[in-house]
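**Fold in tokens:**
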Amino acid sequence: MSFLKLENVVKHYQQGDIIVPAVRGITLEISKGEFTAIVGPSGSGKTTLLNCIGTLEKPTSGHIYFKGQNLAEGDLKSMSEFRLQNLGFIFQAYNLIPVFTAYENVEYVLQLLKVPEEERKSRIEDLFSKMGMESLMHRFPKEMSGGQQQRVAIARALIANAELILADEPTANLDSENTENLLDIMEKMCEETGSTFLFSTHDERVMRRAKRIITLTDGKVSHDTNHS
């Protein structure tokens, strides 16, 4: 059974009487533990494809299978539960809750999963220690730099032991030093936990680290290169 499999995925948007194609029949397989970048110019379909994989949008047609489960068939409630149980998201804009500390932002995921308080505390402290983030634990987002906020966003994505991490332009707002540090963390967590990382990016620094690069052009796969 494939870990993640896309079969002829199509996504169109309706703008008045005009149909705008964003993704045009993409077929792919992603193996567990991959560190893969989806690249291409603006408008090539990167974010749309990631949103379809993450069940944030439904494809117009085609199938997306996660460990055999057809994600294109789920309703809103089942897909919300699926995301909570299986996916971690890292966004360009961090999307932290401003009135929560770093600890509370990460804990919120475990609260939704109804993890007991003592286990939450143990898991969060362990992850923050592994990521060298102990000093950030009780800071609010406004008290952190962009790089620090993105580290918290990564911790939030990882805390539930999600098997698939979807990262949409996660380094776009970061300088080179912060980018390299964050990529170090994500590579380490990929190796240690076996989580699969799938990036949407145009950042050459991410591309250099990716083991596989999938290039989109006009909503189609134009190149698929494995560097491992």
Q: What stands out?
A: The chain is about 35% helix and 30% strand. Residues 178 and 195 are 22 Å apart (CA to CA).
